[in-house]
Amino acid sequence: MDLKYSREHEEFRAEVAAFLAANWPPIIDGQPAKGKEAQIAFRKVATEAGYLYRNIPRQYGGSEQPADVIKAQIIGEEFAKVRAPREMPGIGIMMLVPTLLECGTEEQKDLFIPKTLSGEYRWAQGYSEPNSGSDLASLKTKGELVGDEWLINGQKIWSSGAQFARFMFVLCRTEPDTGIKQEGISYLLVDLKQPGVTIRPLKQITGGEEFCEVFFDNAKTPASWIVGKRGEGWQVSKATLSHERSSIGGAATSVGLYEKIVDMARNTTIDGRPAIEDPLIRDRLVSLQGYVQSHLYSSYRQLSMQAHGQNPGYVTSMNKLINTNIGHDVARLARDLMGDSLMVAPPVEDAYKAGPEKWNNQFFGSLGVAIAGGTSNIQRNIIAERGLGVVRDSVETK
Amino acid sequence: MNFLLSAEQLEIQDTIARYLADTCDSVILHREIESPSWQSQSVWQGLCELGISAIGIPEAYDGLGMEMIDCAVVAEELGRAAAPTPYFGHTLCAMAIAELGSDQQKQAWLPRLASGEVLGTVALAEGNGSWQPDQWQLVGGDTLSGEKTFVPFAEHAGVMVVGTAGGQLMLVTPDGAHTAFSAVAGIDQTRKTSSVTFSDSPAEKLGAAHQGDRLRDAALVLLAADAYGGATRALSMTVDYANVREQFGQPIGKFQGLKHQLANIAVEIEPARGLYWYAAHAFDHIVDDSPRAAALAKAHLGDRYLQAARDCVEAHGGIGYTWEYDLQIFVKRAMFDFAYLGNPACHRKRVATLNGW
Fold first, then answer.
1. Is A277 designated active site?
2. What CATH number corresponds to the domain at position B44?
3. Does any CB of chain A come closer than 8 Å to the CB of residue B245?
4. Are B259 and A384 within 8 A, CB to CB?
5. Does B351 touch chain A if contact means CB atoms closer than 8 Å?
6. Which CATH code is given to the segment(s) A244-388?
7. Could you report the per-residue pLDDT of A274-303, keeping only the tens digit for each?
8. pTM of the model
9. CATH number of the domain bearing residue B137
10. What is the rounded distance in angstroms from the CA atom of residue A232 to the CA atom of residue A236?
11. Are residues B186 and B314 in the same domain?
């Protein structure tokens, strides 16, 4: 066990820090700039230096670096220190690009990856349907090959950011029923800016509008915009999971939340004294600290295992539920520290400027974490069946 | 950056696991808990032959010269088997002498502790929850008089590290004339403890004042490791049972109600091993953070183990509530780990202060 970084990695850290000191924020018109334009310019330089898009080949706009999870961690830490932007956020980078790299054609890679990296193309996910949530493989949206085009009919839901996206990756049923619901699904890429597509944002519990319903009414997409083979879309969609790096990011999120709630306890009073001096609050904060530190060390272990070519095993399947539990715990603490502000609506925009009522966004958001990407009860099935080896139910959980 | 056990550490754990699987089965455990006197001395003798008694002792004194993390991974394995051995007190006693002792004290005790010829233990508690070095009131001098309680395997110890006022540790050689023992009717009979009354017992200082804190931190790490090992075992017993016990014509593990309980227990336990790993690592390598890390590990794992053990009983149903079934042994071991050296709330309070709040 050695929690120090090797000399090579310490040198790498110094190199990243020096790069950031010289390049972030960039100077535009004689002024340090952090806006959208500055971010785009910075990402380009940081990619050329080999710090962003490391697992993406240079021909598609990446920096094509050898896999090194420790270096990736160091980059993350150093960029976070100075709040420099990392890869473009969004589902296009997180899910579509890795899927195309693994299963896409040359034409698809050339057409989509560079412009997705640059931020020109934004993506939405077309997986869930009104009657296919946890049981995703029961999806019914139809794709039919007519001439040299796919004709798509059906409805998708919970597609975050679809109202701002140019394209969607859509799971459609394209093949005859075999009796096995995972078969016969194809993974299609669809331009959302066409007459056959209607997008309707859904207003959420927070009052904001992040996700949408998307209706396909004879929407069209070229025959060649299928990723993987016909009927193998289920496997294609799962290939992405091997690229998941949620373990590390998840623990960092937990630590960040913990630090924020400790700050809140310092800056809130109970009976005229700072809440952080209240014995009950102190006890609850340290209980939370136990969970957060556990998650952090667990992520170090997962990172170390990956760095040594070992499979971290079933603990990776727990990361989401751990994050969810910590989010719930933080929400309970925030609720008790907020006092009357619990009754005040948080602003939808620029929430960081608001008073304690901004914690209502976390109060709701922690529920979003519990649901999105597989609900906690689905996670529990996965942990018990694939992790602990508890006998499977007849219902297949994916 | 490498937050993993070494191949050597994994091998030590594997060796102990295999040894205990052969020598410390359910029959042995039940024989132990049925008896007020220590029955499983041969299990400990075998562990001494494997070198476990020598693990935290420097090589210059015939020990293995290993670190806290090595001592802790052994504690995890012993916790997993609920092994009725005096490893905890023995190892702490040896570590304290190795860290604080004079050359003469080290020479006198360490080689014999390493071989297992002499058993060591630690006398810390003074009753009413007075566990911490700043709470010790026993006055130390050339002799000691007064009482300590919850002293592990006290009657078998040839040397004892005793905590006294001002956080000063003292070395005492128990003898019939100056030390009297009264067995505690302990809930966890895999770890026998006694109250010890000292009457003008000859004693010598071990190190200087306020050095008892390190011993306390070491003890917290070992308890946390034991708790992690025990909790994983309680869970694996419950998973095994859920897969074979049938009701309504199917293994009960197929029911989501139970499946989700098991997943919840796993999520509570599995990530927490890093807390004791880090605390053990910090004890030797990040000394400034060691008191806080040790307290957090013991508080968190003490809580997790006891709750997991209770949840596992509930998940079993009636069989889990019987004396005959082994799970009760782990519940009681969890109660010991929870309360020994101060309960989780006591250590969370310390962590809050150590956080600078």
1. no
2. 1.10.540.10
3. no
4. yes
5. yes
6. 1.20.140.10
7. 999 999 999 999 999 999 999 999 988 988
8. 0.93
9. 2.40.110.10
10. 6
11. no
